[in-house]
Design a protein that fits this description.
By secondary structure, the protein is mainly alpha-helical. The chain has a domain of 59 residues: Arc Repressor Mutant, subunit A (Orthogonal Bundle). Helix 1 packs across helix 4 and helix 2 crosses helix 3.
């Protein structure tokens, strides 16, 4: 039996950036400013990503993303942002 391919529902580079920034601790407003979209558009995209990924919330989505990075399924890519300090 072949295991199903694990992936996230990333449609384009903007979605990829959104997921990466969520994993780095950014808010929707901060993400909107960084990717030059409205706050509501980012909220809509995050909602869609959560729904299709099966993630229960943003923290769960970040965990799924980082797990895929750790397994080598998704490449670790840095962007013009850095993880936020706690």
């Amino acid at each position: 039996m072949v295991a199903p391919e694990r992936t996230l529902p990333i449609v384009d580079e903007v979605d990829r950036s959104i997921v990466q920034m969520i994993a780095a601790g950014y808010t929707d407003r901060e993400i909107a400013d960084a990717v030059f979209l409205s706050h509501q558009t980012v909220r809509n995209r995050v909602s869609r990503i959560l729904m299709y990924s099966g993630a229960k919330n943003r923290t769960h989505l970040a965990f799924l993303y980082l797990e895929l990075v750790h397994e080598g399924v998704v490449p670790f890519v840095t962007g013009p942002w850095s993880p936020k300090a706690a």
